[in-house]
Amino acid sequence: MVHTTRRAGIVFAAATAVAVLAGCGVKGTPVAGEIDVRTLDVGSYAVDKHSFRQTAADQGALVEGMRMSRAVVPAVVIDPSLKVGQGGHVVLNNTEATTRLLAAVSKPILDRENLLTGYTASGADKSDDPGTSISTSDTTSVTNFVMRFADDDTAKRTAQELEDADFGVAPDLNKKLSVSKYPDALVHWRPGISNVGAFLAHKNFVISLFIQRPKPDADDLTSWVQKALDAQVPALDKFQATPKDGFSGLPVDPDGLLGRAVMRDRDKDTPDRDRFASYGPNDFLNIAEDETTRQRLVADTGLDAVAIADTSTVLRVRDAAAGGRLISGLVSASGSAYSPTDAPDALPGAKCLQLGSSSVHSNSAKFRCYIPHGRYVEVVISNDQSDMKQKASAAYALLANSM
């Protein structure tokens, strides 16, 4: 059974302080109705049109895991009350899977059955106790971990093996439960304890659920297992999984967003779930402190793809008007910890924020800017205000030059 919730590093990860760079000329051709990007101070950041055309090679499992972010539902989709995002991420290996998501006794099973890749998402109805990652006793939380295997038979066998191993940790205390709508679901709990674990093989996937509720009620717990499966099973049905022999040929930049991200070093282009990655919109929901508000924002703006490169994030929305609404929504969601600060004067629609010195978000970068261009919004961060302005200008120039 799952024991802890793994929290992913947020998309807008903290950047280390960098030196102030001298301005330099910018390549590009002015377009009617736009500023001449050649006049912008972009420091030493590259702003010429660029593409990452390579394939995943030996990082194919990771890239397929990123694709799976589109198929693993955020907690708020399972139930509207689960609005506090607790993170989502690709599960890189069996050790990680059995350190935070599955019981340690599960590792030999994953080793034998060859877990190919996986993605997990967690959420709750309440925030953790202040200053901790410990949920309160009256919290409802769901951790939804989807694992990919070679074929349907392997998935079915693995689900049963995982259930048997987990149940066998305390066979005299655990009790099996059932969900009538999903007769193949393998469910058990420990009477008197207010959580439940479940496994369900679906096609070549295994869904692993860990659900915590305020009270130890078996009927209530199984109703939540059904609720989670009602959301997750259809999402997997819509997902087109890549055959294992196609992993190495997956493009690292399927949506063309990584090439639009400002990077200090474009040679650092090896897939990395936090520093060089492409995701679907679900991943953007999983990190939200208020998934409900962000879900509405995603739907309103048509946000359909996210890319992270170094300390820049590029988001693709329906059109330019949607880009402006996305920025307004993200700025509003930043809360009282941030205050407005000047964006570079020449950048239309750009908004920048500064983190207050007394903020509890001590690991976050001091400055953050949102830069729109067409149907793209780029978010850049820095601990140095001069660098932040150069990076914001570089983001605008790169987005313009990439059209």
From TrEMBL:
Residues 54-252, 257-402 form the DUF7373 domain. InterPro entries: DUF7373, DUF7373_C. Keywords: Signal. The keyword Phosphoprotein does not apply. Residues 1-22 form the signal peptide. Pfam families: DUF7373, DUF7373_C. This is Uncharacterized protein. It comes from Nocardia macrotermitis.
